[in-house]
Predict the structure.
Amino acid sequence: MTRFDQASDAQLTRLLAELERAGSGSDELTRLVHELQVHQIELEQQNRELLAVRAVLEESRERYADLYDFAPVGYLSINAAGRIQDINLTGAKLLGQSRDRLIGRALSTYIAPDDRRFLKAHVADAIHSQACRSCELRLRPDTAAIREELQTLRLESALEAGSTPARIRVILSDITERKQAEHERRQRDIAAAAAESRHRLVSGLERLSAAATAAFDPQAVLNALLRVVQDLLRADRAWLLSPCAPDATEVHILAEAAVPGCPGEPLFDRTIPMDDPLRRLIRSALSASDPLQDPDPSAVPMLGGGFAPRSRLIVAVCPEGDRPSLLGLHQCRVERTWSEDDITLVRALAGRLADILDNLAVRRALTESEERFRATFEQAAVGICHRNPQGFFLRVNRKLCDILGYTQEELLARTCRGLVHPEDYDGLMQYIARIVEGTSYDRDRDRGETQSLELRHIGKSGQTIWCNLTMAPVRDSSGCLSYSIGVIEDISARKLLEERESKHRHALFRVGRISTMGEMSSAIAHEVAQPLMGISTYAGGALERLDSAPTEVEPLRLALREISRLASRAGRIIERIRDFSRQHASTPRPIDLEAISRAAVGMIEPEIRTNAVKVEIRVGADLPFASGDPVEIEQVLINLLINGMEAMRDVPPTFRRLCITIERAGAEQVRVAVSDRGVGLDQTDPSRLFDPFYTTKEGGTGLGLSMCRTIVDSYGGRIWAKPNPGGGAVFAFTLPNHLPVNTTDQSPAKSPAILADRKLDGRPDTAIGDPQ
Amino acid sequence: MSPKSTVFVIDDDEDVRQSLRWLFESVSMPVEVFGSAAEFLADPGCEGPGCLVLDVRMPEMDGLELLEVLRTHRIGLPVIMISGHADVPMAVKAMQSGAVDFIQKPVNHQDLLQRVRKALAADERFRAEIGDPRIIAERLEQLTAKEREVLEAIVNGSTNKAIAGSLNLSVRTVETHRANLMRKLEVHSTADLVRLTLACRLRP
């Protein structure tokens, strides 16, 4: 029985006692009592019901208390100041303290200092909003001693309805693990995104490099590159124009790639005139370090193929060794925000593209040079070969095959030996050795000359082909001979002409020689022979008559008169000749003896070559002009050279050397000496050497040296002969220096009377007729 | 023989010409001098008998050219050529053209006279034994090519049969040719025929 029951019983009993005291049970009272008894029963009933409910409630309360205390989440109530009013066991456990120590303490004590302000805000928020609010807070580190990371709690708070002072119910849950997992997932996502971006970049660059090497043709490479760029960035169109220079008057689209159905016309290979928007675009692209995003989309619609793209990305591609180009990317259908990743990728691609363009420029230059070389090599009008140091051909061109009559394969399988005339082979080897040695070649090159060799090749059908060979060595970086280049020119036709010319010249020369001396002597002989014949015949007849009729004097007188007349006729002829030679002397002029020597050598070059004589001209320093007639002095030199050459006829070819030495002789004269290695002067009478008609040569006229003396004497010079110390003879003559005497308008020093009309065939002056 | 053998001198040089005339007159040889080949050819006596003394070097027509002309005119005189200077090729050519002798200036007069005498004797002998060289030449020209071949073979001593074999003819044909050529040359025996032919070979 409860207190309530006892009180109501007591009240009831008191009421009943009053009633007994106040009267005997009247009806009213009885009824009242009865009513009271009914009420009492009802009450008792109610009380029983209430007890039952109470039991149920108590049971429920017990259960809820357990639920509260052992709930998986923490429950607590805090007041507006944040002090804990009530907390369940789970909550206490989460906060790491026993429940009784927690009551009355501020919740913030257990929260990480950094997060305390959030708690405060959260509480205020919960009070003011009167709605459920949640937040995540980290616990104070030492409360979670076991764990390494800070424990994170989730607070869901709501104001307790109608509570005064205000109480806030808070649900605490531990979300540390979820947080952890979330963090890890985020980390993974970041890592994955970075990896993806990296992959995109690397694979993009790889694809670009692959495209750069996939084709050889630079245009194909450019197209492939643009396709890669366009594909990597998922752009609708990519283009590359050049030059990216604001001062250009027009630009050219080098390459283009577009998705199928990209709006606008194709741009490839179009030339766009430079205008202000384009110039601005180029300027800003050149100055910007990053790709330009959507620079004035309406500008330069040409670059969109006449169609304004929605989004654009422009970057300058600047190779080191070539003019910069401009790379553009268009998004045509939709607007696009270019991500950081895109920008990075484009920047990287532009860098790589620049490298590739550099390579392409180099390759293009190489290709062009290679093509030029090949064309030059193959189409050359002369034969060209590359020959390795072992003597094999590395390459031969078509013309060389044509010249020699072999196919390329046949030539590549041969060496020079089978292709060169046996007599010329040694000469060729010497020539090659000299070229490979390099000294003579360099010297000649310094002088702007190319040394070449004339030799005979043997064609496939066995014919002799005169060729002019010029070789040059090609060395590797260490200076060793890699191979030599030979240029071979078919000079058969020229040789034929030359031979003809040489014969012609030979004939002319002989005629000339005869006409100047031989002819004269022949004419003299004939002229003088006639009266001599008459004299002899008259004398013969007279003798006959003396034999048969010695007494008849008169006819003899006639004969003697005739003889006398004929003798004076002969005398007159001789007188006439002497007059003629006196008339012949011409006035001296300044002459360059070196030039005249060359001209003389040039005149008899065919003979020099036929006789395989080596001619050398040595000129002393500071040579003045000599005084004489160029034609006559040349004639003197020709005579001396021919004599020298003829004197060496029986000497082995290697010793056949003629040397012309020109030098000063004292202050006033120039000396010219022609030395040979011939038979010498032993068989001659030195005192008669220069006399007319004195000769030791078979068929000689005996007039050559005599004429030389006449000429040299006439200019005040002297001519003499002496033995050559090394064998042979030296014929030397002097001529006086030319002294500019009068004031003619022509400066003799500047225009010496050299033989300008004589060609020297451009041959090297030091080695004519070198017998190779 | 009716006309006396004459030395015909052709030389463009008057002095030489006159001196030669003097020389030949000194030994009592009949001599005629001409300044040029044309002058000589125009002379009625140019067919001989006698011999020619020529200078190789003459203006207008030189000695070698004159020899050619003589041959076409069938003037079969022996020729002695005088050359100014030794020239073997010219001598050979002169010999081939039919000059019998070649002499070089300056001329030894005895040498010249001796050669002239020899030439005159040869000319006289020919005329005596064979006949007028001009007529003989005319007769020889009448021969056909075949007859000439047969004549050559006869002179070389071949029999008719051998000739027929080598010329691929019948013996009868050879005999006909032989009869014809003997008739044309007016000889009556093989000996005469050979003599005539050999004598002609020595003449221009």
